[in-house]
Amino acid sequence: MLSVVLSLALALVLLVSAGLKVAAGPAGRAALATYGIRDETLASVLWAAVGALEAGLAICLIAGAPAAPWAVAGLFSVFAAAQASALMRGRAGAPCGCFGARGSIGRASVGRAALLAVAAGAIPLFEPRALTTEEWLAVGLGVALLGVAALAVGLLALAREVGALRMALAPQGALEIAEEGPEIGGRTALAARFGELAGDQLALAVFTSEGCHICRALEPAVSSFGRDPLVVLRRFDEVEDADAWELADVPGSPFAVAIGPDGSVLAKGTFNSGAQLETVLAAAERRRGVVGA
Q1: 8 and 131 together in one domain
Q2: Over the stretch 82-99, which tens digit does the pLDDT of each residue have?
Q3: Are residues 134 and 214 in the same domain?
Q4: pLDDT (tens digit per residue) in 197-255
Q5: CA 187 to CA 179: how far, in whole Å?
């Protein structure tokens, strides 16, 4: 039974490793530079070959191929030797590429690969026998639990990567095109729709249309800007406020125009998110006192 358990456990490790290599993409392939492989084409070919080899050996282990344990032991031995060589060359802390883009070179990674090689080599030492129904159920339960654990780790890693990516990417501003909408710095009759503004207030004109799905989705976000005491918000519908649309030469919805107390256009742009609408106000604040001076 122990040989079956070891085979299934190692097969799971190989399948997880192969899957993470596929998911890692360029970030994972870059880890091969740790081992001196910097050519992108060669790295891509080798990365795909290693992933395919891991998946193939996992299937062979599950199928009970006699030579599979020795092949897996050899593969992990190569991994351990490569990492040990990189460690001796002062590459400690560099990406190891063991599980996709995760993991780094160190004594722990070398020891892990060596331990897996020993475990694979030990499989043929155990005399195989037919498992009872209860033993197969126990093995199946163990594999299922390991699979759930691996899936949980993968989801957590994916969530972390997505979070890091969102933090790394600067928010894209609203699309401000000079030829669309009112001229920046010019006075607009649209200001009369807001009444008299205080010196520290901004008028925010948001142009929407009934058939605009994005407009409906962003309605709560747009409304939140109206709760700011320094922002006077007005919405202009494409049909009900067609004259305002024509006055502002709006190219489409959703579109925003920020106007200063003196009636000058400080910022404008097409937006697709609350963050992009906020960039319109941010641009207006930056230009306040400069535009029209």
Answers
A1: yes
A2: 888 888 888 888 878 777
A3: no
A4: 888 899 999 999 988 999 999 999 999 998 989 999 999 999 999 999 998 999 999 99
A5: 16
Domain count, the chain: 2
- The CATH number covering residue 253 comes to 3.40.30.10
Range of the domain at 218: 189-287
pTM exceeding 0.70: no
Neighbours of 169 (CB within 10 A): 8
